[in-house]
Description:
Number of domains: 1
Mean pLDDT: 94
Distance between the termini: 45 Å
Structural class: alpha/beta
Number of strands: 19
Shape: globular
Low-confidence stretches: none
Strand content: 15-25%
CATH architecture: 5-stranded Propeller
Number of helices: 6
Order of helices and strands: EEEHEEEEEHEHEEHEEEHEEEHEE
CATH topology: L-arginine/glycine Amidinotransferase, Chain A
Amino acid sequence: MALSDTPTVVNSWNEWDPLKHVIVGVADGCCIPPAEPASEPKVPKDSDMRGMHGPRPPETVARANELLNDFVTMLEGRGIRVDRPTPLDFNQEVGTPDWRHGTMFGCTPPRDVILTLGSEMLEATMSYRSRWFEYLCYRPLLKSYYADDPKMRHEAAPKPRLTDKSYKEDYLSEDITMTERLEMVAKKDFVTTEEEPLFDAADVLRFGKDLVVQHGFTTNLAGIDWLQRHFPDHRVHAVNFPGDPYPIHIDATFTPLRPGLIINNPERKLPDDQRAFFHRNDWEIVDSAPPAHNEPPPLCYSSVWLSMNVLVLDPKTVCVEETEVYQAEQLDKLGFDLIPVPFRDVYPFGGALHCNTTDVYREGDCQDYFPKQ
Length: 373
């Protein structure tokens, strides 16, 4: 029986149990959207993306898809079932009664949109107008999973209005210094307000009964509160990383590798008061190795710390981008079997290996990794 013919079972409680079924993104039609309140603070003023919007160059799309397809072939060769989203026509104006926006984004990073917890797959609110409709790319898959698995729960968080009230006006002026920016972030002064619940799925890390959620540009406290109410049997912990000038998504900052071990971006350290919770439960937090590159690829939103954005296949096996040699060396010393994956040319489309996947099924059940609350 082919992998695609096997019955779907949705089950995933953490970031490290053996992976058996996964969604991998597609680069078709990906666009650079026009500036909007949520994205403007994320793009450095010296970025080559300032003022650009529209479809990404066709040769870069072809290259990204080539690498994504090779990644899929490798995963399937290891017995992992892989599904792909259905791209939309992203190069069109979208809107609601409250706003209009020039284009959408794409469907390369499913981790941003879909949160799998146990038998539930939850569509995140998203906090960018350009990504408001991105959930539609995953609806065909979620519909089929729901039909195949009688225990699967397909849920969607309340779609936000994303009016101007959801963002701080004139946040981060052009002439702000990096020191001033970091001071604002340290005070938890972010671009999003508390007007309505906002969260991206990529701000959530799953540790069995505990969810660790980054409070930053794309997830607000109202969103974290909504997650706690939605998952009442879980414990939800808000974290923040004062050293990150662009706190968007947690998975290039704080990466759990196996029970008891996390690598933390040394430039974005978890504050001591939040770190104590992990130490109290015998979790080791080590500084991640440095990136192998001094700058991201052209037309890339993300930082060089995508080096940390690895995909754990099981507690002994980790996929790492093949040029991130320092991260690979560290993981080797930590006792992991490594799978180098050529992926750097996918970075501009929404991230690295963790970003470009989202779990459908991992072996294992819900464990309590933090008994000392």
